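Example record

The entry below shows one chain as it appears in the dataset: sequence first, then structure tokens.
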Amino acid sequence: MEDQGGVGLGIRVAARRRLLFVIPTLGCGGAERISALLANAFARRGMVVQIVRLDRGADPVFVNLEPEIKVHALGLLSGWQTIFRLPGALLKLRRLLRHSDCVISSVTGASVLSILSLVGSRVPAVIIDHSHPSYYTRRIIHRLARSLFYRRANRIVVLTEESGRALKHLGARVLVIPNPVEVDSIERQKGEALKLERISSVRIVAMGRLVPVKGFERLLTAFATVVAHHPAAELVIWGEGPMRTELESLSTRLGISARVSFPGVTRNPSLELAAADIFVLSSYTEGFPGVLCEAMACGTAAVSFACPAGPAEIIQHEKNGLLVPNGDVQALVGAMDRLIMDKELRARLGHEATRVVVEYSLDKIVARYTSLIDEVDCAG
């Protein structure tokens, strides 16, 4: 196979491949959850899997890992103190890379560190870019990181066709593989969801980090109109982040605080999504809205802004969910109002939504990653 010019081409197929995942933390972020899901799947298939987390290893763990997966913490801190710890972290990572057949990294910081550690090595590198390219237009450090380091990877996995088109200048290195949906976990939760206590006739659920890009202020504004028509409705926003106080204050100013809750991070997102009547995605942009797929796999009727990228590739409007123009809060109001009033529509959309697992099943996505690892591992 032709050399693609990336870091470390030339490793041949091993009897039992040794994979090293590099991620920032083992926290509740989407990238961390997907990395853990893939790592577990490969471990169950007989590969030797290790995970490197950039942090000190003292932060809370929100992912479940197979017992044979070994986790290493590089001990990097936030802020300027990282500079002093960086050389030691690079050396430790390089030692681990030396005994790996392929490195798979997620999130910009982890990917840059992986590429730096691989200089002069023949170990192939795969970067999973979870963000839509428009995210980088507002962050110069991310643009520089992509420009300087991403070209050194053997493959860059993006999650949607739209993201792939935005990175077409990187050529053959870019490959589209969406995030998987863990079907088995979801099936176990559907029955449990029916047992949860309800305080309302209709439960609307959103989920994600409480950060600006998730657009939860747009959802709150829309819900203020919805609840005026349907006072028994409730909105539950799962997640944690720096905007908690701001969002709670907004719900108070809108007069809806009695109908809105912010319960924090859940260790069982499938259960909460399955217990919802309606799921809403209000983001300004998405890399790939895995939580949308998970809600749909649970059979929950979904409505989403048609933001870049992902929702329009996942939702077929009026067939398995509802799409509204990105930023059109009144259209979001109309879609939620319609779903609240029409129980049959919710049931029909929810039933069709479960078919999403055919396209994004874990087995299918892992097979695509296995082919990718075969390709880069045998190159040269």
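Notes for this example: Confidence is low (pLDDT under 50) at residues 1-15. The longest helix spans residues 362-378.
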